[in-house]
Design a protein that fits this description.
By secondary structure, this protein is an alpha/beta fold. Helices cover 17% and strands 29% of the residues. The strands form 7 sheets. The protein has a 9-stranded parallel sheet. Strands 2-1-3-5-4-6 form a 6-stranded mixed sheet. Strand 34 and strand 35 (349-352) form a beta hairpin. The longest helix has 13 residues, at 140-152. It starts with a strand and ends with a helix.
Length: 390
């Protein structure tokens, strides 16, 4: 079957994280959303997303297509029901579409306007899904547990160095990882250490926790439960219930809680994120889709930062701050709770970050990880820059 991940009608709620990627490339638990589905379904996989992202995430169309909403978490019974869908029908739960069996013409209609005017089949069991960015860290502990079962089933872990302390029986270490003179506590949830990852001396980690391939936990870090450090990230200081999607750095002391960083971000030394208001009321966060701040229905939400954004040393982010793509933030005091893409400045005000300068920085940052900035990447960033209002 030709399997397509669709987000034409859902991605706006996940901005700024989806400015540079389809929803299927978001990370929750150990894996990305698309990787979860690929463990349950066989076939060719592609993406149906907004036009300016299609060059990097192309769409393959066949006579018959299985369209998947990647924001719904897969499990065996749900997948079996999807595989039995008749052509021209969709599977739904309440107002959420889960999957659809489409002709090429129907897939084309969806790609143009997000329409799925099909015969509906109501799924009888409960589902778990993501709608807003904060749902990613809210679901992260359970998704680490689920992904851990999928990725480690029937396999044997590599060994940690004898200098390390391991509590509990749910630590899995992939080949090539270095786990030296640290403490890993899996009594309340599993800990997954990816290939060629490193946990340095004196780090304290409490599960559920995921350290993905090539990532590093620096010396003396304190990582609380519910956190995922994506591939090739570096993390230090104190972290609680946060996700770093990949290739980003929070290498120094400072607190990050209930937060999400995209790719190629960097938090300067002693950056701190507030994740709880002084009056303990629900956090309100800017929604690009609603064009206003909306209630998260939660007391806890820290920083949501898009790709290629950076902040200087001693930056203080207020509760529920949203930072767009390729912003450069510096200076004392709290910056605004909404920082547009390609912003340059801080609490005293912002100006537009020159596009050529931003691209120059992106090239240098990516080169340090031996990754090239492709023209398709530049085109995506150019689109975001041209469509950002101040």
């Amino acid at each position: 079957m030709n399997i397509v991940f669709g987000d034409v009608d859902t991605r706006a709620n996940l901005l700024p994280l989806t400015f540079t990627r389809p929803t299927s490339a978001l990370r929750c638990g150990i894996m990305t959303l698309s990787e979860k589905w690929q463990h349950f379904l066989s076939g060719s996989f592609s993406h149906c997303t907004i036009d300016y992202l299609q060059s990097s995430f192309p769409l393959n169309t066949e006579a018959e297509n299985l369209l998947i909403n990647p924001l719904v978490f897969p499990f065996e019974d749900l997948v079996r029901t999807i595989q039995e869908l008749e052509k021209g029908s969709k599977l739904v739960k309440n107002d959420i579409w889960i999957a659809a069996h489409l002709s090429s013409e129907q897939l084309n209609v969806y790609s143009q306007n997000g329409s799925l005017e099909l015969t509906s089949q109501e799924y009888s069991s409960e589902i778990r899904h993501v709608e807003f960015p904060w749902n990613l860290f809210q679901e992260n502990s359970d998704q680490i547990k689920s992904d851990y079962q999928v990725l480690t089933h029937g396999r044997t872990s590599a060994a940690a160095h004898e200098s390390s302390t391991l509590l509990g029986d749910h630590v899995f270490i992939e080949d090539g990882a270095k786990v030296i003179n640290c403490s890993l506590n899996s009594l309340d949830g599993p800990i997954y250490i990816g290939k060629n990852a490193t946990v340095q001396d004196g780090a304290f980690i409490k599960g559920p926790f995921a350290l993905c391939d090539g990532a590093t936990v620096n010396m003396g870090a304190k990582i609380r439960d519910g956190s995922t450090i994506g591939p090739h990230c570096k993390v230090g200081g104190e972290v609680n219930n946060s996700i770093m999607i990949g290739y980003s750095n929070k290498g120094h002391d400072g607190f990050m809680g209930n937060s999400i960083l995209g790719e190629w971000c960097n938090l300067g030394a002693d950056t701190n994120t507030s994740n709880l208001k002084n009056n303990y009321s629900n956090v309100r966060v800017w929604s690009y889709a609603a064009n206003k701040a909306i209630d998260t229905q939660s007391q806890f939400c820290g920083l949501i930062m898009g790709d290629h954004s950076k902040c200087g040393i001693n930056t203080m982010f207020n509760t529920g701050t949203v930072v767009g793509v390729a912003a450069n933030i510096f200076g004392g005091d709290f910056p605004p709770k909404l920082i547009p893409s390609f912003s340059w400045g801080g609490s005293s005000g912002f100006e537009r970050y020159r596009f050529d300068k931003a691209i120059d920085v992106a090239e240098k940052v990516m080169a340090r990880r031996k990754v090239a900035l492709k023209q398709t990447d530049i085109d995506i960033l150019d689109h975001i820059n041209k469509n950002t209002d101040y």
